[in-house]
Design goal:
The protein contains 6 helices and 6 strands, in the order E-H-H-E-E-E-H-E-H-E-H-H. It has 160 residues and is α/β, with parallel strands linked by helices. A 6-stranded mixed sheet has the order 3-4-2-1-5-6. A hairpin with a 4-residue loop joins strand 3 and strand 4. Helix 2 packs across helix 5. It is elongated.
Length: 160
């Protein structure tokens, strides 16, 4: 699955992120990279309001980030990109709650996912993966440890 994502539209729906945070964009990028890795998907992420020194596009791999310069909007950049790709976007999903972008995407045959819904999906996938990774290895009771120590000691004496 490929996603085209309106980044500043998504951030307010992610628990723990806020548009007023200085690191909101890098935090979202990091979360999306992990989400895409886990779901074997790709994303094109758009942010508007980039300072003039900011590179317009970054990354490769699973998440490609587009920083749209001041004077234009991420919405316009997304719509322009969708029209350039034409019918190939039918296999992609747009993540935005902006009705103008949604309408353009639907005309091209794209699936549209509201930002709040995608945020829920992303948080569920990331927290499930974190829970799975956090499961502790089975631990041995003190009596089991003693039993193994005796077995290893006995085996060592037999080998000598």
């Amino acid at each position: 699955m490929n996603y085209v994502i309106d980044g500043h539209n998504l951030i307010p729906h992610i628990p723990g992120l806020s548009l007023s945070d200085l690191d909101d964009e890098p935090s979202l990028i990091s979360m999306l990279q992990e989400y895409c890795r886990l779901t074997r998907s790709r994303a094109e992420l758009y942010f508007d309001g980039a300072p003039p020194a900011q590179k317009s596009a970054q990354g490769g791999g699973l998440v490609r980030v587009h920083f749209v310069r001041k004077g234009t909007s991420a919405d316009d950049a997304i719509i322009r990109s969708l029209h350039q790709k034409g019918t190939s976007v039918r296999n992609d999903s747009l993540v935005s709650s902006d009705h103008r972008i949604q309408a353009e995407a639907r005309v091209l045959g794209m699936t549209v996912i509201e930002s709040a819904e995608f945020a829920r999906r992303m948080v569920n996938v990331l927290s499930s993966a974190q829970s799975a990774a956090g499961k502790a290895e089975p631990t041995l009771t003190p009596s089991e440890v003693e039993d193994w120590l005796q077995r290893f000691s006995a085996a060592k004496r037999e080998d000598s």
